């Protein structure tokens, strides 16, 4: 919720292939985090600090999801879109709005 919208691609590891580069660029449009299935994730920021901030929170979100899933998928309660958007907007401004 803190990192905003994310993209997902099936990454083959072939950045020398133009189609792969185009797919990554397309999926990153309007996003700063992309998950490369079976390869991890990549974060883009306007500064190194922003990219590090996104990477830190993405990693923590992944850890939280793994922990939550250990309790069983049927026990997970997902927040609604409104709550997600409010949290993201608040986080974009450092918690001050």
From TrEMBL:
Molecular function per GO: actin filament binding
InterPro entries the record matches: Aldolase-II_Adducin_sf, Aldolase_II/adducin_N, Aldolase_II/adducin_N_sf
Domain Class II aldolase/adducin N-terminal: residue ranges: 17-66
Pfam families xref list: Aldolase_II (PF00596)
GO cellular component, one term: cytoskeleton
Domain of life: Eukaryota
Record family assignment: Belongs to the aldolase class II family. Adducin subfamily.
Protein name as it appears in the record: Class II aldolase/adducin N-terminal domain-containing protein
Lineage: Eukaryota, Metazoa, Ecdysozoa, Nematoda, Chromadorea
